[in-house]
Specification:
about 140 residues; Transferase(Phosphotransferase), domain 1; about 35% helix
Length: about 140
């Protein structure tokens, strides 16, 4: 098993990421999400702490699949057959449909979370920060 000395959260907190490094890390994360979505697997907890980084090889992997689930989808309609948990994912990276309590969601919730991680790589702070779900929406 490969050893990764840091996670993305620690890299972001060092206060500077070059645009090239942001693009390189984002590309790898999105490729990983693409692979998961082809298998209908929703990670459901994408956040910088769950993305491991090898600073020397600039390799990134998605970890912590404790909340992940393979979504059972209807072949003809674009929704999941069985209900899922709405209270999933860390608050700052939670998709709006999860905040509103949706139980029929797709792997696109991970895309929202990854977009939030990407903004955090650029700005150094999560784009949507709130103390509660209502505060999160506001």
């Amino acid at each position: 098993m490969d050893y990764f000395s840091d996670n993305l959260y620690e890299v972001i907190k060092r206060k500077y990421m070059s645009p090239l490094l942001i693009k390189l890390y984002a590309y790898q994360i999105f490729r990983g999400l693409n692979y998961l979505s082809m298998l209908s697997i929703a990670h459901r907890d994408i956040k910088p702490q769950n993305i491991m980084v090898d600073r020397f090889k600039h390799k990134v992997i998605i970890t912590d699949f404790g909340s992940a689930k393979q979504l059972v989808r209807c072949i003809y309609l674009d929704y999941t057959v069985e209900p899922n948990l709405a209270y999933i994912c860390s608050r700052c990276y939670r998709a709006p449909e999860l905040i509103f309590g949706a139980t029929n969601y797709t792997t696109q919730i991970d895309m929202w979370s990854t977009g939030c991680v990407l903004v955090e790589m650029i700005n150094g702070a999560p784009p949507f920060f709130g103390d509660s779900q209502v505060d999160q929406l506001i």
